[in-house]
């Protein structure tokens, strides 16, 4: 992973959250970490419910607005943690621009690269200091392991993280390490197929009259398209979309045959999830609606099955969900 992400050292953890927790332990009471408003829910939760109790503060910023970000970087801020594209609307953040601003302010840039993997996007080359992964997703790739990774660009900072990992013990077990290495060996071919499927599905959804909107940074009219193209190989493989009002999303989920309803992502089998009641259920409805996570939003993690089979499954489920 050190080689793939291009850092000074890489560390394997028992889960993505263990990696994130160890990285956050680089900071101390009185420090403040900024996170972008759409980071993984567990990242917000560990800061808000755990680190806060130890005096590490967290602030939420809209990282698509660099002026707002700059204004939020007060004297106690030590780092900014971002994801791109971010869940569930696949919002793109300009990693190089955020990292340049952070560097100017003397703070660290941490990028959770779970959705893209180093095959599609390499944040350290864009100026970030630390990359974290939930290897449970694409890196493992087969929905049969839980693991996390951190890669650090600077050797001195890597030494501090090595100490923390040893001191706190969230290491990856040997069998999971074996499974993860096996997964990474096929990362490139799997990602090529995941992306190919996502591109075909996104284009098909965009042209489907039952679909109200599609969020996929690989589509030319997506608001994140241009920035994503600069910093990543392609749009990745995660898609979100909403059906029009006369379609019932509950019936849609119930009617899927090949695609499974589940929260995870990045495995060889296609998964669909309902952010409003699953991944983003802890966000109050008012706030969810304000940021575009409508009740009928559907998130899709296309696997490596035949695109035609996936599109046929989506098509029959959409048709079944049309209200009379
Ligand atoms: C799943 C996920 C995590 C947490 O990883 P675990 O391995 O489940 O602990 C962190 N960040 C992102 C973006 C994720 O999707």
Helix fraction bin: 25-40%
Secondary-structure element series: HEHEHEHEHEHEEHHHEHEHEEHEH
Question: What is the β-strand count?
Answer: 12
Bound molecules: pyridoxal-5'-phosphate
Sequence stretches where pLDDT stays below 50 over 5 or more residues:
none
What order do the strands of the largest sheet run in, or round the barrel if closed? 1-7-6-5-4-2-3
Mean pLDDT: 96
Task: Specify the biggest β-sheet.
Answer: 7 strands, mixed
Please give the alpha-carbon distance between the first and last residues. Answer: 52 Å
Structural class: alpha/beta
Radius of gyration: 19 Å
Strand content: 15-25%
Characteristics:
single chain; 324 residues; alpha/beta; seven-stranded mixed β-sheet; five-stranded mixed β-sheet; 13 helices; 12 strands; 18% strand; globular; binds pyridoxal-5'-phosphate
